Structures are given as C-alpha cells and as structure tokens.
Description:
alpha/beta; three-stranded antiparallel beta sheet
Amino acid sequence: MRRHTVIKSRQGRSPQQILPLNLVGQYRALQRPITAAIQRVLNRGQFILGPEVEAFEQEVAAYCETKYAIGVASGTDALELALRAMGIDPGDEVITTAFSFFAPGSAIASLGAVPVFVDIDPVSYAIDPQVVEAAVTSRPKAIISVHLYGLPCDLGAIRAIARRAKLKVLEDCAQAIGATYQGRRVGSVGDAGALSFYPTKNLGAYGDGGMVVTNDARIAEQVRLVRLQGSRDRVHHEVVSRNSRLDELQAAILRVKLPHLDAWNTARRAHAQRYHEALTKAQVSDLMLPQTFPRRTHVYHLYVIRSRHRAAIRDALSRAGIVAQVHYEVPLHLERAFAALGYRPGSRPHAERAAQEVLALPMYPELTAQMIQRIVDVIADVSP
Ligand SMILES: *Cc1c(COP(=O)(O)O)cnc(C)c1O
C-alpha cells in the first residue's frame, strides 16, 4: 500500500503497481495447509532427508512420469550432481546453450568439465540442433538442453544426435516443470532431468531446492550417493563429494503446492493466450511474441517478447508502474567467468541478439485480464 501512495503523489494518479510475479498472493491462497505442513515438520523434529522428502520424491516422480526422483539443495546442484552421476569427469566437454540462466555453465565448470556453448534458434530460444550437430565433432560427453522460459526444446532432434554421438542428455527443466513434449513430461525424455524449486519457479519453495528425475537406476543411485558425502549408510564413504539435500520443511511446503501445479500452468497458458491476442490486435511494429510448437505444451515460466525497441518499451512500462525484466542480459559465452574459454563477441549471433532484445512481461497465475490489458495498452502506446 505504501508503494501505491508514493506513485500516486508523484504522478497525480494511482496506477496499481504490477510486479513480474506475486508470491504473496499464492501464499495467501494456501496459508492454512502450508502452516499445517510446517507445524507437522517442526513437531516431528526431523529436518534433513526424512519422510516429507521421501514422499515428495515419490510424488514428483509420479508427476514427471519417471521411475526415480532425488531431492537436492538447488536446481544448480541437480544439474551438477546429475552430470557427475552420468560419469562426466574433469576435462570432459559438455555442450550447452549460450543463452540461459548461468546454472548450466556453472554446473559443468564446477565439475572441472568444459562447457561448449552453442548458438540458439532465434524463435524457440533453445539450442539449435543443427549447431549442436556441428559441435559434436569435438568429442563431448553430454549435452544440457534447457527448456527456456517453459517451452520444451526439440528433444527429438537432440536425442537423435545424442544417440549417434553417444552423448548423455540432461534436460534442464528448471523453468519447465509440467511441460510436455509429444505427450511426455519434460525430464522423462532425456537420460535425466533437473528441476529447481527456487521461489520464483512455477513450483517454488520458500528457499532453495532442486531435484533430479530419471528412469535410469544407475544415475539415480549415483545422485543419492553424491548428495550425501559419498555415503550410503552414513558410516562409510565411497567417494569424495558434497552435501546437497532438500530440507524437510521445503519438501512439506512443496507437497502442498504440487497438486495445484497443473492448474497454475493452465492459468499461465490462458494469460499467454490473452497477451498474444491483445498484442496482435494492437499491431505494435517490430514485436516478436512467444511461439508455440505442435505437440509441445509451454508452461510460460516467463512470457518473453522481443523488440529492437526494448529500452523504450521497458521505460514506458516502468513509468506506468509495471516491472518488466530482462532474462538474460549477458549470453553465457561472453560472461566474464568464462573469459578463459576465449569466445569472441559475434561468435553466437542469435544468442547475442536475443540478449539485446528480449523482455519478460509480468507472468504468474494470479494475474488478471485487466492487468494484462493495461500492460498491452502501455506497449501499444510506445512510439519508437
Ligand atoms: C533457475 C534455474 C536453474 C537452477 O537454479 P537454482 O537457483 O540453483 O535452483 C537452472 N537452470 C535454469 C535455466 C534456471 O532458470
């Protein structure tokens, strides 16, 4: 309310602020069962790897249509530990996208492996299978394919390349839990999938959390081992590894939320449809809207438009109290952290151009038709 008043006094009117997402709204709707879940854990007095985590692992495995699910401390850890379980060693090359949140790059590099950043397809924003095919000459061991913004990538083409070149496929499902590719849940199609329960994700905890899903018994067993100091029995330690575990509290909270995920994703799709219709009707020049693909369901973790006039659009939205964000400003191959790999500007042109043009509009299940119309009206008024 205070923010509201500030805007009012400054501009002489009272536009309701629209933030990129609204976590408190979701909490209010589930306040009672979440409070009960937290109290259940506190009264039991077991906080790491207990019955809540075990039950949640089974529920996620059923939801993602995989045989196994293993809770870990974050989505980044899910990527790193899954790679390790796949047998990726220091010095091995792993192909991934040049345009994503930083985690695939850091997960690969944290193992001492070498990320090979490939360019994206400018429409789906996912790695371009043709470019992957070209990169396979350097003997990589695995590929991390990111379902960016909630849209499943072209898993059919990627798996075909992986089969020929004997690569493991790790799906980064951090932004896409619940999405389907040819009727199958993402995470169940590749050798393994990594989920993130970071609070802003479509299924968000109240802290960090992640999970590896897989149908491969060996990968599952190895992830269980390396999330717990390389120990099966907490007495003997077979390999040196780290601690990376999902909390009982977070698992208990996520168990309350999981049954709502499909409805939330359906609401996101309805909002995307509404954005699409209103933005199309507004006939804004030089605006690219998110595309859909046959037999792939998008879960719109983010609703991302692109324009050469991004700065003007973002400024106009900001003046109207609407916060739009850029995911991601810097493509991975040009990040300072990877300078030693020697990638040059211009070497991944589609990723670099996307980084300059993408803009995420507010997107969350509780968004209303009125809010979407207000956002679209502001964009329609921007004259480049
Ligand atoms: C959020 C995210 C992750 C994992 O992030 P954590 O914060 O470690 O849970 C991984 N990949 C992508 C693409 C993401 O958006």
